[in-house]
Design brief:
With 454 residues, this protein is α/β, with parallel strands linked by helices. The chain has 15 helices and 14 strands. The protein folds into 2 domains: 307 residues, 3-Layer(aba) Sandwich (Alkaline Phosphatase, subunit A), CATH 3.40.720.10; 128 residues, Arylsulfatase, C-terminal domain (2-Layer Sandwich). The strands form 3 sheets. An 8-stranded mixed sheet has the order 5-4-6-1-7-8-2-9. Its EC number is 3.10.1.1.
């Protein structure tokens, strides 16, 4: 009987989907991720299910939408929902997790053979500590196949070298993890197009890139440990981020840049070096059935993801023309129900919470970027409108992704885009009915009201 592959799942914390160089990001920031992409397959239209940490990770490890696994916010996965680790353990796998341990709840339900959280890993920011942990885990695995989820805490706030880092981490804590192998303090940068190009935004983006580089250092340290163990050729490696950057119009939203993730897969003997999947949309939900198929594990009933085997082998796969993403709750336990359907041409967002009075407040408004936007808005009418819109939104948002990939101009109320709006609404309603979204009746009522004569 052929031994199943080892599975190494590496995650970043709050890395934008277009940040690594291999997906169009700035050059020389992510050399190890770029090398991993050159050795395997890059998915250009990959999205997480929900753009905030715990729900995103719970969806990966259950293969189910948050409302179907119980972890819509920072709650535990519902009892009785099949967990990836338990299925793999039943097939003889040794399982381990490094970092973000408590972001998969209840911890004991996952049955990890090894669980090391951030305090054992230099606040989740020490590449050498990750390498040592991987060395020990692989040595203890012996001849057994293994599944390891290695979760970097970079580039989550506080960003490297910033004021917030000094405020949140003591000098002793900062001494416990190294600086990135490269900084970008004096280098010209181009901030993401969905953010205004302001001095403080550029400054924070440089700090973010430093944290991205240290995440890349951690990825390299983990991959080097696998190579030292002689396991590279027997290991399926997957890298992705749990959500986008922790800035406005990204993390903790349904905007495209909130859910877009850099998904890289290297599977010796399966993926072609340097291959890219450009047209098909894929979801982080698809990883669960992909891992089960690789391990020879029977799929449980009720999964929402679809395996990536055909795409990894270079075959096109019909039926991946669009994708839905969701949002329920911020880390601060504030509820903002959102749904998005996008197809590469348009992105439609339904903000169930938007009533003209409720104000959006989330962790992506900490740091330098949001205060800089608010301050600059005093003298800039266009930015003032964008800041005000971010706080309260509109129930329906629609974006022309061909002309406006950064989603700067909402067309939801534009009569010329009514047909596209109705088409997107129809597709979203069909999805909500298919997965029994708890808000499907609310959405239907919203659609009925919008069709009433003025």
């Amino acid at each position: 009987m052929t031994r199943p592959p080892n599975i190494l799942l590496i995650t970043a914390d709050d890395m934008g989907g277009d940040t690594p160089g291999c997906v169009g990001g700035p050059p020389d920031v992510t050399p190890r991720l770029d090398r991993l992409a050159a050795e395997g397959t890059t998915f250009e239209r990959a999205h997480v299910a929900a753009a905030v940490c715990q729900p995103s990770r719970s969806a990966i490890m259950t293969g189910r939408w948050p409302h179907r696994n119980g972890a819509e916010g920072f709650e535990p996965v519902r009892a009785g929902v099949p967990l990836l680790t338990r299925l793999l353990a039943g097939a003889g796998y040794r399982t381990g997790i490094l970092g973000k341990v408590t972001h998969l709840q209840p911890v004991e339900a996952f049955g990890w053979d090894l669980a090391l959280d951030r305090e054992r890993l230099g606040s989740g920011r020490d590449p050498a500590a990750y390498a040592a942990a991987v060395d020990g885990f692989l040595a203890d695995a012996g001849d057994r196949p293994w599944f390891l989820m290695a979760n970097a805490h970079d580039p989550h706030r506080p960003f490297s070298g910033g004021d917030q880092e000094r405020e949140m981490f003591s000098a002793e804590q900062r001494a416990g993890y190294p600086a990135p192998s490269r900084r970008f303090d004096d280098e010209p940068v181009t901030v993401p197009g969905f953010l205004p190009d302001l001095p403080e935004v550029r400054r924070e983006y440089r700090e973010y890139l430093a944290s991205v580089r240290r995440c890349d250092d951690t990825v390299g340290a983990v991959l080097d440990a696998v190579e030292r163990a002689g396991a590279t050729d027997d290991t399926l490696v997957v890298f992705l981020s749990d959500n986008g950057i922790a800035v406005p119009f990204a993390k903790a939203n349904c905007y495209v840049h909130g859910s877009l993730t850099p998904l890289l897969v290297r599977w010796p003997g399966v993926t072609a070096p340097g291959s890219r999947v450009r047209e098909e949309f894929v979801s982080a939900l698809d990883l669960f059935p992909t891992f089960c198929a690789a391990a020879g594990v029977e799929l449980p009933e009720g999964l929402d993801g679809t395996g990536l085997g055909a795409l990894l082998r270079g075959s096109p796969e019909p039926g991946r023309d669009d994708i839905v993403t969701v949002f329920h709750e911020t880390a601060g336990k504030r509820r903002y129900e959102m749904r998005c359907v996008q197809d590469g041409s348009t992105a439609y967002i339904w903000n169930a919470w938007s009533d003209g009075d409720t104000e959006y407040v989330a962790e992506n408004m900490r740091g330098r970027t949001w205060p800089a936007m608010v301050a600059a808005a005093e003298d800039d009418p266009a930015l003032r409108a964008r800041v005000g819109f971010y706080r309260r939104r509109a129930p329906d948002e629609l974006y022309d992704l061909a002309a406006d990939p950064d989603c700067l101009h909402d067309l939801g109320a534009d009569p010329g885009w009514r047909t596209a709006l109705d088409d997107s609404r129809t597709r979203l309603l069909a999805w909500m009915e298919q997965v029994e979204d708890p808000l499907r009746a609310v959405f239907q009522a919203h659609l009925d009201r919008s069709r009433e004569p003025a």
